[in-house]
Every structure is written in structure tokens, then in C-alpha cells.
Amino acid sequence: MRVLVATLMLCAGMAEATPDHIDGSQTQSSDPVAVDESSTTSATRSSDAPATITDERRQQVVMVSPRPKLRPARFRKITLGRERMRKRGAVCDDWTILGQTVKSFTGKYRGCGISDPVRVRMISDIELSQKSLMDCRTAVVLKTWIENTAKPAFADMGGGLKKLHVVGHYSCRTRNNLASTRISEHGKGRAIDIAIFQLVDGTLISVQDGWNAAYARGALRKLHSGACGLFGTVLGPDSDQFHRDHFHFDTARHRSTPYCR
Ligand SMILES: [Zn+2]
């Protein structure tokens, strides 16, 4: 008799503790377990046996499927992730481009300046040696080149690419600083000059020393040809005396076909 009372008390406790009443307030439970309390099986079920679901209750469970209620939670997670990324310094609506947004500005010469500029410090985990001022279109093109060309070009060298040594970004000046030429794409925030590629193991590969050197010429030529088309203008050591020691990439908007030398 004492055993029977104890068993009944245990069952009553289980009935209270188990979320067997599936109603609207409990539908957020991600994995509801239905227990058939009307059945006598609960009295005979051992404590670790799985709960049984009758056809009627299974229908109820299906009707209150928690799936639609999970979506807002997932969206909340995405929103939180975006907030975290903004705090991390993501710009240009791209989580892999890190830096700061800057107010639009004009320069000392007509034609200079950038609207909605960004000061970029890292792209796709590759550091820029100096925070580089540019517009978002240029930043996104640079990111594409880094991911599709620069990283693969150095994948088998020195542990891979780590840092770009930038020797030019925004600068309100004429092309190659020559008098009576047009405003450089640098003056519009559409250009970047890169002189050295630093690898994870510390190796420095400069455009000037590596362009015709056996250890680097293959990689450097891949960087140059991979930029052509992505950027409107691509200049390297074979172009002219002004680019012997760096690559100039810009997103010139006036060209119908890319200019790559
Ligand atoms: Zn340049």
C-alpha cells in the first residue's frame, strides 16, 4: 500500500514538472515533450522511459509547432551580430572591411574630395599599414582583389599574406604631381598605391625588388593581372618611371575598358 501511495505521489510530481500542457504560452519551447497524462501508462512507466505521444496529442503538438516562433529570435540574433560588427568597426555594409566612416569633404583643388568616405585599416583580415581614405566602391573592389587574387597568390609563401604596405591613398593632387594634368584618382578617393607585401612569417616582398626576381615575379604578376578589370587602372613597374616601386590601382569611372600596364 505504501509503495502504491509513493508511486502515485511520484506520478503527480512528474505531471506537474513535465510541460505536458502545450498552450500558446509555451510554444517557444524549442523541443516540447508531450506526455499523455490520461493514459494509465504513466503509472507503470519507469522513470527514464521516453514519454509516449498519442495520435491525438501528436496532432496537438503539430498544430502548435514552435518553428514560426523561432524566426524572430533568429532575426534578433542577426541584429545583435550586426550591432557587434558595427562596434568592431565594419564599414561599407561589409563585415570584412574595418575602419571608420568619415564626413564627406572637398579638397583644395576643384574635383578633389570624397562623398561618404571611409578610413580603412583592415580588409578580410589583411592589415593596411596606414589607415587609407577612399570611397566604399574602391574599398569593396580592393576587398575583392585581396580575397580573389592577393591571398591566393601568397597562399604557399611564408604562411600567407598578412599586410599591405600602402604608400598612397587619398591625396588632392594632379596625376603624378605634374603641372597641367588632370586631378589624380587619388584626389577623388578612388586610388591606392601598394609598395610591399608582408607575409605572416615576416617576409617582405617589395614591388621594386621582386618584380623581376625569381622568388616573387610569379606572385607579383598574378597580383597585377588579377587587379586588371576589377580596377579601371592598374599600373606597375612596366608602366612608367613613376611606378617602378609600387602598384597603383584605381576605380576610375571615366574608362570604358580597363587600362593595365
Ligand atoms: Zn597611385
From TrEMBL:
<keyword id="KW-0732">Signal</keyword>
<feature type="domain" description="Extensin-like C-terminal">
    <location>
        <begin position="107"/>
        <end position="261"/>
    </location>
</feature>
<feature type="signal peptide">
    <location>
        <begin position="1"/>
        <end position="17"/>
    </location>
</feature>
<dbReference type="Pfam" id="PF06904">
    <property type="entry name" value="Extensin-like_C"/>
</dbReference>
<feature type="compositionally biased region" description="Low complexity">
    <location>
        <begin position="38"/>
        <end position="52"/>
    </location>
</feature>
<dbReference type="InterPro" id="IPR009683">
    <property type="entry name" value="Extensin-like_C"/>
</dbReference>
<protein>
    <recommendedName>
        <fullName>Extensin-like C-terminal domain-containing protein</fullName>
    </recommendedName>
</protein>
<feature type="region of interest" description="Disordered">
    <location>
        <begin position="19"/>
        <end position="52"/>
    </location>
</feature>
